[in-house]
Amino acid sequence: MKRKNYWFLFAILLLSLTSLSQGQNMTPDNSSSEERKTMSWNPQPSSPQDPDDQPIRVITHLNESDYKELLDINDNFIRETGIQVEIKNIPDTDAYRQLTAALEVGEGPDVMLVNSPWIRSLASSGYILPAESYQSSTTGSDVISPILQMLEWNGYQWGIPLDMDPYVLVWQAHALQTIGIPEIPQAGKEWKDLLVKQENRKDKKLIALPAGDAYAFAALMGGMGTDPSNPTNEGLESLSKLRPGIQFIEAGKMQEAWTSLKDEGLVMVAMSASSATKERKGNGMLELRLPEQLYAENPFLLRGRSYAVSAQVQHPQNAADWIAYMTSDMSQRLWSDTTGYLPVLKEMYQGDQFQWLQQPVRLDRLLKPTDGAAEAGALQSKWDVFSKAAKLLLTGKSTEQEYREALEGRPKEKSSNE
């Protein structure tokens, strides 16, 4: 009888253990508190069974034609990958304020394509991720050095560069030869020779600049070898002598100036590289020159755009894949051919592997490594002051001394008649 009782008790115990074992799957996680903390701060990627239907949200700051071209390349990405992308463009002048306002309240995009000089500010405000966190090849060794400088802060790179659109000097080579100048003038004596030749053609203008365009003013000074933020007396004297030969292009009149350049009425016009590239096609006598020293010392003048990933991004790998596609060799070819913007990879200005691109400018100084000295250019901090002072100087409404005093921050003394 006792043996039967033992077997009965053993069966009950076995059933109890079995029920307990099955019930543990329904209870809260029994892992240690440290393990739970680790899991909460290190979320695991979604399993393949979990569909990722959320599109990549992108905000851009582009003009209408550039935005259309970006949408075309993006359509290629969607067809090839099946990943959905929603792009919203903010062309407004207050685009930076609109973007940061959305980021501030957690309603920002996953990815943004913005002016490269914005990157540091976005990074220091905690709005974007360092590029190394989502893109494996971001050493920057292939990127033009001054462009890379704009994307670095606190020891990290915070953006992936797309392009640049600096102002260039477009020269009419045959018109130069006609007045006795065999080659495109470089800084110093060659510009002096050009000014002497201009004395014999006072009935014609020598060069054309967009009225009130500080980027054009800076490009002219850089081409003459003059530092806009700290010019020499000789440089200012040359600018003063050049003033009678300057034609200012009013809004909507650029095509007339371009026609005059082609017809050799003008010798040089300053304009953005994208505009010059489009207009120059089919005219072998027009040559583009980039004032490299100016841009090496003032990277913000290169006027590039860069991609950045928001700190609020939901799917960083999808965002990284999209940026990689949009900056691939093929995409850059489409972008440059259509928009006229210059690429930012050194290799596209060297060797023969990118013959399809046919760069309209030659680079030398900008391809060399920099020592970081241009990280905080003096001209950028004085840009508004420079814009006003340069316009007054080039239009003959102020003297060289007044220009220098304005850049140095010295107040102008009022005369007794004022």
Task: Give the secondary structure arrangement, pairings included.
Blueprint: H1 2-23, H2 33-41, E1 56-60, H3 64-81, E2 85-89, H4 95-104, E3 111-115, H5 119-124, H6 145-150, E4 152-153, E5 156-157, E6 160-163, E7 167-172, H7 173-178, H8 189-198, E8 207-210, H9 214-223, H10 233-242, E9 246-249, H11 254-262, E10 268-272, H12 273-280, E11 286-289, H13 292-297, E12 305-309, H14 316-326, H15 329-339, H16 378-381, H17 383-394, H18 400-408
Parallel strand pairs: 1-2, 1-3, 8-9, 8-10
Antiparallel strand pairs: 3-12, 4-5, 6-12, 7-10, 7-11
Helix pairs in contact: 3-15, 9-17, 17-18
Give a description of the structure.
The chain is an alpha/beta fold and 418 residues long. The strands form 3 sheets. It has a 5-stranded mixed beta sheet, covered by helices on one side. Helix 3 packs antiparallel against helix 15, helix 9 packs across helix 17 and helix 17 packs antiparallel against helix 18. It is globular.
